[in-house]
Structures are given as C-alpha cells and as structure tokens.
Amino acid sequence: MKKGMFLCGVMLAFLSFSCSTDDDTGGGGGGIDQIVRGTLYATSNSKNTIGIYKFTPQGVAGGLNTVSSNNNEGIFYNKEKDELIINSRQQKVVNIYGNIKNAEAGTDLSLKTSSSSVLQNPRDVVENGNYLIVSDGELGADEGKYLIFERDEEGLTLRNTLTVEFDVWGMLMIGNDLYATIPNTGDVAVFKNFVATHTTDATIAPDKRITLGGMNNLRGIAADQGIFVFTDAGEIGNTIDGSFSMVYGFVQKLNNVENGGTMAASEQLKVSGQLAKLGDPVGVAYNDQNKVVMIAENIHNGGAVHMYQNVEVGGEIPPVAVYPLEKASSVFYSSNL
Fold first, then answer.
1. What's the rounded mean pLDDT across residues 181-194?
2. Is residue 1 part of a domain?
3. Nearest 5 degrees, angle CA 104-CA 106-CA 112?
4. Hey, CA dihedral for 31, 44, 115, 178, is it positive or negative?
5. 3-class state of residue 337 by DSSP
C-alpha cells in the first residue's frame, strides 16, 4: 500500500465523494473508527455543494448535494425537524432545507423557507428555541453584528440586530448563553442569556471576554461534554500554520479567569504542524464519545473536510481522513445515537 494511504471504509454504490491520500504531507492514519455513528454536514465558499458524510457500520455513505447558492457559510442541523439551516453569502439570506434524511446523493435539497436579504458576510448560525442567530462580519473590520431571526409558521423574520465593537465569526449556545470567537485575536466572548436579554436593535458588549494563551486568529468553536474545540487560522495566506486546540472543562476554567484576563496555553491540548495539514481551519465540530474532531479547511490543497481521531495527546497529528471539498467553510455534526 502506498505510503500515506488510508482506508475509507466500505463505500456504498451511491457515494459521490472520496477520501484523499494527500501524500504530499504524509497522508492519514488508519481511517475512521467504525464505532462512529452520525452524519457530518459541510458547506463550501465556492460551490453550491453541500457535503453530507454518513458514518455507518458498513463504512462512509452519503455524498454531495446541491443548494440554490454558490457560496455558503454557517450550517446547523435540526434533528427533530430534519432540517438544514444554511447561511448564503451569495444571496445574503438564511435558507432552511427540509427532508434531509431522504435526500439522495447528487440531488437538490428541498428549500422550505428563506429569510429576507439582510446579511452581508455571514459566518455562522446557531439555533435557540424558535430563534436563529447569525454572526455577520467583515474580516479586519472594527465591528460585527449578530442578527436574531424569529421563526413561526410564516417563516423567518428578523427580530433585531446587535452590533459589537469587534469582528465576529464562530458561535455556539450552551443553554441560553452565547459563546463566540473574535477573529484576528485569541479572544472568546460570552453573552449571558443572549436572546432574552437583547431584544431590540442595540450596540452591546459581552458579559465576559478572555484571551486564550498562544492563539492569535480564532475562527471556529465547538463543544461536547464540556470539552471545547477552537480553530486558529494563523497567518492569513500561510497554507500550513493553522491549528486547533481542545480545552477540557472550558466553562469552569473561563469562570476562573477574570474579565479581560488570559487562560494559560498550558490549559489547552494543541494540534498543529505540517502533518496536521491545516492552513485556514474555519468551521469545527466535535464528538466526544468517539474523540473525533471535524474541521472545514478552507485553503490547504484547495479545501477539504478533515477528520482527526485520538487527539487527546495533542501535537503534530495527521488527519485520519480527508474529504476534498473546494473552499470548505463550515461543518456541523449530528450523532445518530
């Protein structure tokens, strides 16, 4: 077997994506551990393609589906409604697609509803009850926005727009609290009881903002079982200096840092280096049961979805699988368990 080759599992006949050996940087490990049960969704900044990677006992199934926009960033799957919520940077709207489980690979996803065209440069989207929150920013800008949409039987309505005095990117909700990364910095912001507290258009400040030591250009944020994962894009244009870091018990550690303070780099497990194949890691998802980190890599080798397993030791760890997806921009993982 060629150096760097790894297994993709048993590919079903309708599979329309493939693993990559990516031999120029050492390839992957031994393939995805088949105990993984779930589906990974991914978007692209340059195509109307949505990656849907289904991990089953028989291997990796699914494929690539198409949507109405050629530039998408920010994705969220609602398991109960079987809906994909996707920001369109081209159309400047939030689109909601339905009947995802039954969508055959290679087909168009079924559009259910869209917001009005009010976005500028959307980065991420999260759901909180009947509300959607979209981070909307311009890289290098002095301010960003969080847009809160309310959903009812009629569709999506923009409830209010919140301006912050920093650029915005990744988000996640823990309960009713919003955790967000601040690009071009190593900072994380926390907004308590976000939707209920901020109900009108306003300029707001986070309840707390801290710096993660050793990180300088944050993008994505994900969490599972109290473990947070952050991506760091490093220097813009450098195709190999990206990284991601894991922080165990992040919320408690953040609570122990004063507002404006720094969480020591020693509190993180960092994965970086040439073998990690990260140049501009943007979106990230994490599943703790299987210790799998999933990253949308935007520029290295044209863009791809990278999967890393057994990352607890940190260091220079290669991905166990690489799924080519031009200008991959965001990911969301949904467990089948």
1. 98
2. no
3. 65
4. positive
5. coil
Domain containing residue 310: CATH number: 2.130.10.10
User: Mapping DSSP to helix (H, G, I), strand (E, B) and coil, where does residue 254 land?
Assistant: helix
Asked whether residue 62 is assigned to any structural domain, the reply reads: yes
DSSP string, 265-331: GGG-EEEESGGGT-SSEEEEEEETTTTEEEEEESSGGG-EEEEEES-TT-BS---SEEEE-TTEEEE
Assess whether pLDDT exceeds 90 at residue 2.
Answer: no
Q: How confident is the model at residue 31 (pLDDT cuts 50, 70, 90)?
A: low
pLDDT at residue 98 greater than cutoff 70: yes
Whose structure tokens read 């290098």? Answer: 140
Contacts of 161 (CB under 8 A, 6+ apart): 145, 146, 147, 148, 201
Count of domains forming the chain: 1
Could you tell me if residue 168 is inside a domain? Answer: yes
pLDDT at residue 34 in the model: 52
- Provide the pLDDT for residue 139: 81
CB atoms within 10 A of CB 129: 11
Contacts of 241 (CB under 8 A, 6+ apart): 234, 235, 272, 278, 279
16 in any annotated domain: no
Q: Return the H-helix or E-strand segment holding 231.
A: strand 227-232
Backbone angles phi, psi at 225, to 5 degrees: 55, 40
Helix (H, G, I), strand (E, B) or coil at 211: strand
Q: What is the mean predicted confidence (pLDDT) over 296-306? A: 95
- Looking only at the bridges linking them, the beta strands covering 110-114 and 93-98 are antiparallel
Residues spanned by the domain of 240: 23-335
Give Cβ neighbours of residue 218 (< 8 Å, ≥ 6 apart): 169, 170, 181, 182, 183, 185, 186, 187, 188, 212, 230, 231, 232, 233
Cβ atoms of 257 and 210 within 8 Å: the answer is yes
How far is residue 223's CA from residue 43's CA, in Å, rounded to a whole number? 19
41 alpha carbon, distance to own chain's centre: 9
pTM of the full structure: 0.90
